[in-house]
Design a protein that fits this description.
Oligomer: single chain
Number of domains: 2
Number of helices: 6
Largest sheet: none
Length: 120
């Protein structure tokens, strides 16, 4: 019964964050996708209530384990547009490489700041 309660709390937290993000994005006309805003809401919930981490982990773990299934449509789409990808290969490589490096650098910088703040 305790396992069921923990699962329910985790499902509620994840769905609340997801649909809250979708609702805020649509109702306020924000240029940010709703699911991304939902991730920010979930992150805020985890910072505000650290004890729900165990509940959300219980629910998210099976989803993350089978995440590769979600990439099948994207891989099939690459095959459909291969000629366009070949024509713009250099621009795509530079854009993907640059944004990846920028994203990793920014993530490392934020994580470093948060770790320093947490250790104080």
């Amino acid at each position: 019964m305790l396992q069921l309660k923990n699962t329910f709390i985790g499902v509620f937290a994840i769905l609340f964050a997801y649909y809250g993000g979708v609702f805020l994005s649509a109702s306020l006309g924000l240029p940010i996708p709703g699911p991304l805003l939902g991730l920010v809401i979930l992150l805020s919930l985890l910072f505000a209530f650290p004890n729900i981490e165990t509940h959300t982990t219980l629910v998210a773990q099976p989803l993350l384990k089978h995440m590769s299934v979600l990439f099948v449509p994207a891989v099939l789409g690459v095959g459909m547009y291969w000629s366009d990808i070949e024509a713009n290969a250099m621009a795509l490589i530079l854009a993907i490489g640059g944004t990846t490096a920028l994203g990793l650098g920014l993530t490392a910088w934020v994580a470093n700041k948060l770790m320093k703040k947490k250790s104080m």
